[in-house]
Design brief:
Layout: H1 2-6, H2 8-19, H3 24-41, H4 47-81, H5 83-94, H6 98-116, H7 121-132, H8 137-146, H9 155-168, H10 175-182, H11 190-209, H12 212-224, H13 230-234, H14 237-257, H15 263-281, H16 320-339, H17 341-349, E1 352-354, E2 364-366, H18 372-386, H19 391-423, H20 438-450, H21 458-469, H22 472-490, H23 496-510, H24 516-524, H25 532-560
Antiparallel strand pairs: 1-2
Helix pairs in contact: 2-3, 2-25, 3-19, 4-7, 4-18, 4-19, 5-16, 6-7, 6-9, 6-12, 6-14, 6-15, 7-8, 8-12, 8-24, 8-25, 9-11, 9-22, 11-14, 11-23, 11-25, 12-14, 14-15, 16-17, 16-18, 19-24, 20-22, 21-22, 21-23, 21-25, 22-23, 23-25
């Protein structure tokens, strides 16, 4: 019964968004109210704690909107400086085929950005860049969301593992983990435990993720092509598989030998160099380039509320290297603020702390200088000089970005607080210890239903956590200890708990493709509003593939071998 009640907000979101096709700005307020009512009257969470959880979520929502605004600002700066024209022409000279462009921009460049920054930044960068190249806004968002899978577990220099799994398996309630580490023949330290989990995550992702570029191009041709054909996507299978292996091979090797901080970051960089080189050489290219139908034939659902890829004819031409310089600078700064010790220390000191919100003990700290929105803002200001912009053009870009951000505000401001009421619903002094938080009640019920077949469902729980929280890191933090405990109870081998937690992390990465506030944020960066349900219906396809494949691998490894 607890699980049936807990799942109600998620079912309402799916029903309203996906089936009744409500926009997120109407759906998420309803879901927020329902979650708050259930937390108050069924979970017996004190109203003050519900309010504090909502305020914590509101801070995170503002962080997310800051990232969206920063990405939009850079996009409009490129538009009002004339860089859009140079980027578009440059990519068309590399390959006119939209399938090839999608793989290079979203899969390889997006993976690099995910490795550097995480937290939805690839969609904020890759989506607008694809629109600049002439993609329909909805196609750009579907592409950008679909690659939010394989690279995510090692995004932001390994944050979902080094912080998410680490925090989940630490603390006073993790006595089982400490006992496990103390056994003979087991990892000797907690750090080694994380490295072993990370290695397993890399291998599972490497097996499943190699096909993601093929999913990207097939989704494009099936939903956005003239012929609505899967076959046209399969027509570029050689290059898609090459791009998949170009990322996943170094990704797996880095995960096995260097740890969680590097697979997506360096793997994406290697794949970017290899795919561009092969494309310029004309290898593995299709005989006939594929393109979208003429813009006049685009479905109205595909269109943006603003034209981010428009070309201004009144601006002087810009060289290709100068047009790309802002994106190069974004990538460099995202790495520097995390990996250069002195700068990283300075960034970590500039924090805003919201402690003991409303006297409830719930806290939130934010690092403004570390948020990708700050990087976008710095680079946008630098463009005044790098791209020799006129001040009035920069002011126009600021105004356009502000107006465009407003469209995402309502959905995000209600979605993220709803998430944190959901996650923190276990803080219920009057309900007693028998009533865990809503996501934990769901996970426990799932375990009772499937028993020893848990490896088949472990990744689904991770995906559910990410769908709710919009974060692989939070999903791992919420469920890693539970997954570890199930792995111990199954008695399938001494290292089974590590593999079960790895499946959790893989599922948590896959869930980012359908998470509501990721979809809203990605849509906002290209001016696409009110189509969240249509987007989720499309990205459910690669999400289902991911969690099913992870379940099959889990069953083979833990139940057969």
């Amino acid at each position: 019964m607890h699980a049936l009640i807990a799942v109600a907000p998620l079912l309402v979101v799916f029903l309203l968004l996906v089936f009744l096709r409500w926009p997120a700005k109407r759906t998420m307020p309803v879901a927020f109210v329902l979650t708050a009512v259930l937390a108050c009257f069924y979970w017996k969470v004190a109203p003050l704690r519900i309010a504090a959880a909502s305020l914590r979520g509101l801070v995170i929502a503002l962080e997310l909107l800051y990232i969206v605004w920063g990405a939009l600002l850079l996009l409009f700066v490129l538009k009002h400086s004339g860089a859009v024209t140079a980027i578009r022409n440059g990519f068309r000279s590399v390959s006119p085929d939209r399938r090839i462009q999608a793989i290079i921009v979203a899969w390889t460049f997006g993976a690099f950005i995910e490795g550097a920054a995480g937290f939805g930044t690839p969609a904020a960068v890759a989506g607008p860049l694809l629109v600049i190249l002439g993609f329909p806004p909805m196609a750009a968002v579907v592409t950008a969301l679909t690659i939010q899978s394989t690279p995510v577990s090692f995004g932001a220099c390994g944050t979902p593992i080094l912080i998410g799994v680490n925090e989940g398996l630490s603390g006073p309630s993790a006595e089982l983990v400490r006992e496990f580490v103390a056994r003979p023949g087991m990892p000797e330290t907690h750090e080694q435990l994380l490295l072993m989990i990370g290695a397993r995550v890399a291998v599972v992702h490497g097996i499943i993720g190699t096909l993601i570029p093929l999913f990207v191009v097939c989704l494009l041709t099936r939903f956005f092509g003239v012929n609505r054909s899967w076959r046209e996507g399969l027509g570029v299978w050689k290059f898609a598989l090459f791009a998949g292996f170009a990322f996943t091979v170094p990704y797996v090797l880095l995960g096995l030998f260097l740890g969680p901080a590097f697979p997506s970051l360096l793997g994406g960089l290697v794949a970017l160099v290899l795919t561009v080189t092969v494309t310029k050489a004309g290898w593995l290219q299709p005989r006939q380039p594929w393109d979208f139908p003429p813009q006049s034939a685009w479905d109205p659902q595909w269109l943006s509320s603003f034209p981010p890829g428009d070309v201004r004819e009144d601006l002087p031409p810009i060289s290709l290297w100068r047009a790309w310089l802002p994106y190069v600078l974004v990538g460099v700064l995202l790495v520097v603020i995390r990996k250069e010790p002195n700068i990283a220390a300075l960034v970590d000191q500039t924090k805003l702390v919201f402690s003991n919100i409303l006297g409830t003990g719930i806290s939130k700290e934010t690092l403004p200088l570390k948020l990708p929105g700050t990087i976008f803002l710095i680079v946008s200001v630098c463009c005044l000089f790098l791209l020799r912009m006129r001040l009035n053009d920069f002011v126009a870009a600021v105004a356009d970005s502000g107006r465009a951000t407003v469209g995402a505000a309502v959905a995000i401001i209600f979605a993220v607080p709803m998430v944190w009421i959901f996650i923190l619903s276990g803080d219920n002094a009057t309900a007693g210890p028998h009533l865990a938080s809503m996501p934990q009640e769901l996970a426990q019920a799932a375990h009772q239903l499937v028993g020893r077949a848990w490896p088949a469902i472990s990744a689904v729980i991770g995906a559910m956590g990410a769908f709710v929280a919009g974060s692989n890191t939070i999903s791992n933090m919420t469920f890693s200890l539970f997954q570890f405990d199930v792995g111990v109870r199954m008695g399938l081998g001494p290292l089974a708990p590590l593999f079960v937690v790895a499946l959790q992390a893989v599922g948590g990465a896959a869930g980012n493709m359908i998470c509501v506030h990721n979809v809203v944020a990605a849509s906002a960066t290209v001016g696409l509003h009110g189509q969240e349900g249509a987007l989720i219906r499309k990205t459910l396809i690669p999400t289902a593939y991911y969690v099913l494949a992870a379940g099959v691998i889990g069953c083979l490894v833990l139940l057969v071998f």
